[in-house]
Amino acid sequence: MAAASDVWPYLIGGFIICLALSINLWLNKRLTSISSIYHNFFVPEVPELTSGLSLLAGLVFCSTLFWNIFGFGEVKNTKVVPFESESAFFSGLSVYGFLLSGFLVGVGTKVAGGGLTGHAFCGVPRLAWKSLIATITFLAVGFLVSSVKRKNATLTDNSMSCVALNIDPRITANVFMVVAIVVLLLVLLKDRNAGNILSSFLVGAILSIGLMISGLARRTQVINFLTFKDSWNSLLLFVFLAVIGGNGLTFNLFLRKHHHEHNHVPHHIFNVIVGSALFGAGLGLSGLTIASALVVSPVYFPEVLIFFLLPAGFGNLAASYIERAINWVRGVADRGGSYVRHD
Question: What pLDDT does residue 5 have?
Fold first, then answer.
């Protein structure tokens, strides 16, 4: 059984994530889905793009701030390590594994209408049944893929070390910090609703802190949680408990009191299941989500961008074709079912 000193960083990290998502619902009247914000960059006409940009700027700004303070070390007098070493981050998964993971995460979150944040952290607390099914699906597939992928050398060799450019994170982190500030200023100039922009930046910053403290930004931590073995690491369960439990209280209070509109597009349950399975497979391969990849991208640049985030973008573009195939299969099934009922 985990000691209290081991558990508390995960609970606190989870509550900080809960705080970020609750603030976004309270101040900006919208549910949070980082994958949806990322996908919006691949759509020509995008509503609320400025608020999404400011949220991502806050996400990156805070991660670079943490890097400049703590580097790869531990937060003093705690067991919190925001960033794992480069050797640990790139170990256990090949170039092909990273590319495939990014593509699957990009496709899956688009088809399912969300991933870890959108479904597990925002949907489950509202007892949205599609989100419950999505979360069960991607966790089950994630456990399966993470546990069996070790038998495939093509996916698990350490070929990332051969392509890594080894750019000093002290340079890339500061460049990303400047870029995040510039993006915020440009968005403020373009969008006159400064309150909405600044609150979105705050949400991104708080969410970034929560992801780093909770361990969700360390891919080996996520993989150890998703891989059943004798030394199974169950500590991320406390993150889920804190986020879902906390949001279960705040979300229902805000939604009941203020009648906030949901900003998620309805998805057919078949799409949700297929998309969540694809997302779970990508998560089980790398332990990365769109949100965690964005948080760590300043430190592991340019590898995370090239081998995960860009493939996720291609996955987003390919998702429309996959959705058409899913809709065709659904149509055939519906026609078949209809034929049987009328026979």
Answer: 62
